[in-house]
Design brief:
ten-stranded mixed sheet; 296 residues; alpha/beta; globular; 10 helices
Length: 296
């Protein structure tokens, strides 16, 4: 096992160098490095290096002595990159991790060659704040198991939940065993207390792909539209018929989009024009994105 020391605490990571660029994956709220196994194996087979880690308080990383900030988590990533002699990376994060990726790119723009921001946000409205306060209350009153049930109802479509009840029962146990009430409360409070960064998004100079679930409740399309119109070299892809956790619900289309974006970056073919696109499940091997009406 490999660890990076930060503030007298061990941060677990797994690094697999390869011939191509390094992709950093950042976990969502209750996830661990295991969430990215399918994605990192897929990209590694295509010649790309991978770096995954557990945020302090997650998985195999130690709980921090105090609540961290987005800036401090960004500093942890920067420190790991320095320790591993990785000058620049492609970065992807989902939900909580997507927001961390945005903060990292704002603070360390020269370290990011490209970014996939999945369900991240740069500002909060009243509904967003109410929902996250409800998550804090659920965690404190019902524990991680209740939080998992709450998140399941909001993260996935009805059809997917119906088809995956057995898997969800197992995932519920894993979630309870691998997360602490203290850590989750730290994360949720950090989200609520953080300053909005919309006015700083122009600092993100790398190509950015914004991925949005069509039926996302946690970070609805208005959150993603703010990112699209404020990040200069961005494009947005809306995934049809899915909610917030679509990298779990629709891994096939998600992996195809990941691969399409990163290959465009590596080949110098990316055109970030703040456009909006729609991705749909396609049975044949041809991959195509469809223009999507923009919303202001």
């Amino acid at each position: 096992m490999s660890y990076f020391d930060y503030a007298n605490r061990k941060v677990f990571y797994e690094y697999q160098p390869n011939e191509g660029p390094v992709i950093v994956f950042i976990n969502g709220l209750t996830q661990s490095t295991k969430h990215w196994r399918e994605y990192k194996n897929h990209l590694f087979e295509l010649g790309m290096g991978t770096l995954v880690f557990d945020i302090p308080g997650q998985g195999q990383s130690e709980l921090p002595e105090k609540k961290l900030s987005f800036a401090e988590i960004a500093a942890i990533i920067d420190g790991m990159m320095t320790q591993l002699n990785i000058p620049t990376v492609y970065m992807t994060g989902i939900s909580f991790g997507g927001t961390i990726a945005l903060h990292f790119a704002v603070h360390y723009p020269g370290r990011v060659s490209g970014m996939i921001a999945i369900g991240g946000h740069s500002e909060k409205d009243t509904l967003f704040k109410c929902l996250h306060q409800a998550l804090i209350d659920a965690t404190s009153k019902g524990g991680i198991a209740y939080l998992f049930d709450f998140l399941t109802a909001l993260n996935f479509s009805h059809e997917w939940i119906e088809k995956n009840k057995t898997m969800l029962a197992f995932a519920r146990k894993v979630c309870v065993d691998n997360n602490s009430t203290t850590a989750i409360t730290y994360f949720l409070e950090m989200i609520l207390e953080s300053h909005d960064i919309t006015d700083k998004l122009h600092r993100i100079t790398c190509p950015v792909l914004i991925m949005c679930g069509e039926d996302d409740i946690f970070t609805p399309r208005w959150c993603q539209e703010i990112l699209r119109v404020n990040i200069p070299k961005s494009n947005m892809v809306v995934i049809q018929n899915v909610c917030h956790a679509f990298t779990i619900e629709s891994p096939v289309i998600s992996k195809r989009i990941f691969t399409h974006f990163i290959q465009q970056m590596v080949n110098g073919e990316w055109v970030g024009e703040q456009a909006a696109w729609m991705a749909v499940e396609q049975e044949n091997d041809q991959f195509k994105l469809f223009p999507c009406k923009r919303k202001k």
